[in-house]
Every structure is written in structure tokens, then in C-alpha cells.
Design brief:
Elements lengths: L1 H16 L2 H10 L7 E3 L18 E2 L9 E3 L4 E4 L7 H11 L1 E6 L3 H6 L9 E4 L5 H10 L1 E2 L2 E2 L1 H14 L1 H16 L4 E5 L5 H14 L3 H14 L7
Parallel strand pairs: 4-9, 5-6, 5-9
Antiparallel strand pairs: 1-3, 2-4, 7-8
Helix pairs in contact: 1-9, 2-7, 2-8, 8-9
Length: 232
Amino acid sequence: MPGAHRKRRRVYLAALRFNQFILIFVCSILLTSCANIQTADSIDASLGIEFQSVQNARQLGPYVTDDGFRVRAGVILRSGELAGITEHEIETLVREYELAHIIDLRDENEAESAPDPVIEGVQNHHLIVWPRAVRERLIQESYTECGFDSELYISKYYEAFALEPAAIEAYREMFEVLLENESGGVLIHCVHGKDRTGIAITLILSALGSAWEDIETEYLLSNETYEGRRPI
């Protein structure tokens, strides 16, 4: 099943490449690309962030854009949920990445049961990609005469990223936060830092003009993070 799920993720990425959802956001963010990139010779940064209490934490970059720049390291961060983050790890985010914003893409129940930390000087944004009602509706729509169809659910799940008004609005608001951010890091997360966060990063890299091979590589890094184990 892990191999099948990985294949579905690749198929979804290929379809997403041509989706007008991305094209809309490319146009909306294009004029800000210079604020998020720097010259290719000035970067030598590791992607991973060594946190013990936060899953799948890494920084975005340094991917080359189509105009010869690289995504600036340390500006966009991504991870799983932050409820268990330690004080030392918070200090790292503030000191090393000058964290200014946390964007939480989880639903109402997820955010309530494992709330984000409140950090002095950091703005928290709760942008719900998947309202609980939408998730429940997709589950109901995935029942057939033979019972629950997991393949059908996965198909509906990925399609809804581009079609559900709530998802479109959440990602639009995410770009507003990025556009208004004058300095400091922005951390984007969901529960495991995989799909909802992965789509967010796909949109950002697409808008900045990164090569599709790099976008796919970044998206699929989460598979390596969880290789051989279930997300906790």
C-alpha cells in the first residue's frame, strides 16, 4: 500500500502541474518573487531542521528558479503540527529563522486538540484547508454498493485541493500573509506536514518559477521522512 499511495501522489502532482489553480496563484505572486530569492552563488544550506518533537520539519530551498536565482534559504519553513514543540526548538525558530508567522492549515478539531504555541512576536494564522464538514462529506461520497472505497476517497481528496472553495480560500489567504510579510520566517504546517502543507509549498515554488522536477522532489521528500514508519 505505501507504494500505491506514493504512485497516487506522483499522479496527483502531474495533474496539478497543469491545473489552473496553480496558474492563478503564479500570476498573483509573480511580482513578489524577487523578495523571496537571492543569487545562486550565495546559498549553501541544508533542507532539514533537526527537531525531535516536530515531525517532517525542513526549510524550503535552495531550488533554482527559471530566471537563474535560487529560493532564499530559511524564509519558508514547513513541518507537521507544533503542539509538542520544546522551548529550545522555539528558540531555534526565533533565533535562527527569525520566525514571524505560523500558518496552520489543519481543521477545527485538529487545531483545538493540539493547539499551536503562542510565541511572542509571532503571528498565528489558522487557515482551514479541510473543514471537518468537507472531510465528512467526501467520506460519505466514497461509499459504494460494496462499502467504503478507499481509492475513490483518495481521488476525491486530492481533487478537492483544487476544487473546494475552502481550500482555494485558505491558500489565497496564505499568499496574502506571504505578500505582507516584510521580514522574518514563515512556518507552514498541517498535522504531518505532507499533503496540505505539500500543496502549499507546491504553489509557492510554482509561483517563484522553480523547475517542476524540483517541485516534485520537494513534495516527495515527506515520503523519505516517513519511510518505513507511520506518522505519529
